[in-house]
Amino acid sequence: MQRVNERFVERLPLVPDRPAYAYLVTFAFCVIALALRMAAGPLLPSGYPFVTFFPAVILASFLFGVRPGICAALLCGFLSWYFFIPPHGQLVLNPAVAVAMLFYTGVVTIDITLIHFMQRANYNLAVERERNRVLAENRELLFHELQHRVSNNLQVVAAMLSLQQRHLDHDIARRALEDASARVALVGRISRALYDPSGAGQDMRAFLSTLSADILDASGRQDVAVAVEAPDGLKLDSHVTVPLALIVAESVSNAIEHGLPHRAGTIRILIDQDADALTLRIADDGEGVAPDFQIGREHSSLGLRIAQALASQLGGRFTLTPAPDRGAVATLTLPARVAR
């Protein structure tokens, strides 16, 4: 309803290209005002010759602009003077009549002037709103194009790395390029999935569910199930979501490769948020890790070291510890100021 009213006001004054209609309706307003004043005559005390004519002037000015408003003011002034200011029907000018007409002229002049400036301000506001809408559309289009090109470029880099690793004979070098290609491709997919020019972000539960499904498809493991638990409607800024998604990807890949290399299992991704911190846990029921395991040692994987570096960039902490019963738990803790 409010938007309908805004659209109507933005169209004022009406029918600017058809002034004949405007003057015709203005004349009708004046006639209606005269009829109402005559009908209300027995109910009104002595005086009040302009009481029904002011609304006619205001309506004409509001709907059709300054010129029809001035026309209504002149016609209503004549009708009120001729029919309702004594002596009736003679248009006699005396000091009392002059004061009354000056009062009427001052009131309608103020009304028409205020309505005119209001309409000009509203017109300028409508023009500015339209300009902002066009700029917003252009910004969204450019942002979408930039995001598309960045994602495509990352996919090209990943393809080049994948092509290069096929020409290597050294197994370690080939595996390093393969891992690098997979990570670059993952960053491209994450960037494309997180595209939102409004900055509103995506629902984390749906996003992580899609991400984990992509990781499982890439690994070719059909015997591993991934469950995601997150607060309803949880959304994070993209500067947090991208590294968090990379940490989830590295942790899930590590659980598949090292925790569940030869058997079926389950991986659970849990996000908890409170006033103090945001906590992400990736728990599996695989082979687990040693009680004294520490990320950063020579035998820890590159993916875990990358996850630890990303957590440090966010001002958080990433750990990998044995689960209470079986498997391992990767934990990312971020301060609340970063997660907001």
From TrEMBL:
Main localization category: membrane
Q: PROSITE patterns, from UniProt?
A: HIS_KIN
Entry GO MF terms = protein histidine kinase activity
Q: Does the keyword Chloroplast apply?
A: no
| All residue ranges annotated as the Histidine kinase domain in the record | 145-338
Q: Which keywords belong to this entry?
A: ATP-binding, Kinase, Membrane, Nucleotide-binding, Phosphoprotein, Transferase, Transmembrane, Transmembrane helix, Two-component regulatory system
Q: Please state the Enzyme Commission number of this protein.
A: 2.7.13.3
Q: How does it sit in the membrane?
A: Multi-pass membrane protein
Q: Where in the cell is it found?
A: Membrane
Q: Which InterPro entries match?
A: HATPase_C_sf, HATPase_dom, His_kinase_dom, KdpD_sf, KdpD_TM, Sig_transdc_His_kin-like_C, Sig_transdc_His_kin_sub2_dim/P
**What is this enzyme's catalytic activity, as reactions?**
ATP + protein L-histidine = ADP + protein N-phospho-L-histidine
Q: Transmembrane stretches, by residue range?
A: 20-39, 51-84, 96-117
Q: Which PANTHER family match?
A: ETHYLENE RESPONSE SENSOR PROTEIN, TWO-COMPONENT SYSTEM SENSOR PROTEIN
- Recorded protein name is histidine kinase
**Species per Swiss-Prot/TrEMBL record:** Sphingobium olei
